[in-house]
Every structure is written in structure tokens, then in C-alpha cells.
Amino acid sequence: MSTRAVAISTTASDLLSLTKPRLSSLVLFTMAGGMWLAPVSLSPAKALAALLSTAGIIAAANAFNCYLERDIDRLMKRTRHRPLPDGRLDPSVARWFALSLAAISLPTLALASNLLTAMLALMALLLYVFAYTPLKVRTWWAMLVGAVPGALPALMGWTAATGSIAAPGLVLFAILFVWQIPHFVSIALFCKEDYRVAGLKSLPLARGDTVARGYIVAFCTLLIPVSFLLYPLKVAGPIYAASALVLGSAFLGSALVGLWRRSSLGARQLFYISLVYMAGLFIALGVDYITSRHRG
Q1: Which single residue of 93, 96, 107, 144 has CA 20 to 30 Å from 284?
Q2: Domain-ending residue, one of 146, 161, 176
Q3: Within this chain, do residues 64 and 93 fall inside the same structural domain, yes or no?
Q4: What is the CATH number of the domain that holds 244?
Q5: Which parts of the chain register pLDDT below 70?
Q6: In sequence order, what DSSP letters do the residues of 80-125 get, joined into one string?
Q7: Rounded to an integer, what distance in angstroms lies between the CA atom of residue 189 and that of residue 129?
Q8: Which residues of 179-203 are buried (b: 16+ CB within 10 A; e: fewer)?
Q9: Domain range holding 223?
Q10: Nearest to residue 35, comparing CAs of 153, 120, 123?
């Protein structure tokens, strides 16, 4: 392979890493769930177009975040080897990459689905880039602000299919919003020293570990009734309802153990448990949906 080809390949790989593919895939998964649960079915072509354009918007938000936080990332062990803090990629290239993704993806989403979904995507992008990102160095409340754009794709999936905002779509948003708090706080606990060095404000640094773990317990408790709401709204059936109660109780139990033990290792375990919880909840939705169709 020529030197030029290697350079192009490296740049492409670095640009891809700016989009945070693993995080983006989780967000897209929640949007797909919102589409699937909606009472109106999209054609495969329209669903794919909506997902791909949303992927572009998520990628743009993450790339902007990497661009704006490149100096902070240089101070933290887990981020210092990213392309921008490591000096492998020119910041102007990252900025134009993010701008291009947003400029292409937003109108494409409006055409692929509807204007409402595109407006929600724009709101998520603006909140993530211009509110959440700068607030992270000012206040731990940034965590709550950041949970809004993180939860909007689930609602966007609903609106992409239906063209309107309704109670089930709002419940999907609420589930993702509430879930993100124990998820985020767990990260803040086991990355506390990294955050301190980088000057990022977090709940554990501002209020202490015990208060932070109390927030985890409180939001895990709230997650149980919020997740159950899909059942009385008739979006999900008894399999999901039972699963939501069992998974939510297990998540809450893990949070209570973490509050008692107060170890960074426990915080890392709770982070992984939060991912298992979310995956389990959506799997239960899928099984419930397929089973109900088979009975019908």
C-alpha cells in the first residue's frame, strides 16, 4: 500500500473515531425501538433512510464534542489518545467534518421522515453541542442537560413513524432520560480522578460519593414505574411488564449494594449492569411484540 493510501486510511479511521461509533449505535438502537413500537409502520426504505440520516446527526454531535473538548481530552487517561488531543488530526478538519455531517443529515432526515423529527434532531444537536458540552466544566447539572439529547432519539423514532408526539413516545423518552442518570453517575464515580484533573464538574466531585450513589438509587427507583407505563398504554404486553419489573428491581438492588459498598469497582460494575438493563428491556419489548403478533 502506498504512503498516500495509508495516510487516507488513517485519516478516515480517525474521522470515524470522532463519531464515537459504539455510543452512536446505542442511540440508534433506541430510535429503532421507537419506530418499531409505533402503531404506524414505515417502509424498510424510509426506516433505513431515517436511521442513516439520524446516524449522521449523532456523528456530527459527537464530532463537535470531540472538537470542543480536545484540550480537556488531552488531560484524561481514557481520552488523551483520541485523534485531536494526540495531534493526529487537524482541528479544522474535525470542525468541517462535523459541519458537513450536520448540513447533509438534517435536511435528509426531514425528507426521509418529517419536519417534526428533524426539528427534534436539531434540538438534540444544539443541546448537546452548545449546552451540555460547555456546561460540563461549569456545573454537574450538565448531566441532566445531556440526558435530554440522549433520550430524544427514542421519541424521534416514534415521530418518524407517526408524525406526531404522543404519550408512548414521551414515555420512551422518559425511560431513556431516567436511565441515563445512574448510567452517567456510575461513569463519574469510577472516572472521578480523570474528571478532577480535566476540570470537569461531576456529581461525585461536587457533592461527594454518598450523595452521588443516592442519586443512582433514586433514579433506579423512579425507573421502575416509568418503564412500566408502556404496559397500561397498551404499547407493550405482559411479558414486557414482568420483565420491566424484574430488570428494574435487579438494577435497583445493584444500586443499593453499590451505596452500601461504596467502591469504584462497584461503580464500574453498575455501569455494565445499566447496559445489560437497557438491552434486556428492549429485548423484552421485542419478544413481547413478536409473541403478541403470533397470538393475533
Answers
A1: 144
A2: 161
A3: yes
A4: 1.20.120
A5: 1-8, 262-265, 292-296
A6: TTSTTTTTSS-HHHHHHHHHHHHHHHHHHHHHHS-HHHHHHHHHHH
A7: 23
A8: bbbbbbbbbbbbbbebbeebebbbb
A9: 166-296
A10: 153
The answer to whether residues 186 and 203 belong to one domain is yes
Are residues 133 and 28 part of one domain?
yes
Say how far apart CA 177 and CA 141 lie, in whole Å: 14
Same domain membership, residue 147 and residue 170: no
Report the predicted TM-score, pTM, of the whole model to 2 decimal places: 0.92
* Same-domain check for residues 186 and 253: yes
Q: Each residue of 30-80: pLDDT tens digit? A: 899 899 888 888 888 999 999 999 999 999 999 999 999 999 989 888 888
pLDDT score, position 206: 94
Kindly state whether residues 277 and 179 are assigned to the same domain. yes
Number of other residues whose CB lies within 10 A of the CB of residue 214: 16
Look at residues 111, 146, 161 and tell me which one is the last residue of a structural domain: 161
Give the pLDDT of residue 127.
Answer: 96
Sequence-distant (6+) residues with CB within 8 A of 16 are none
Residues 151 and 173: their CA atoms lie apart, in Å, by 5
What would the DSSP string read from start to end of 193-227? HHHHHHT---HHHHH-HHHHHHHHHHHHHHHHHHH
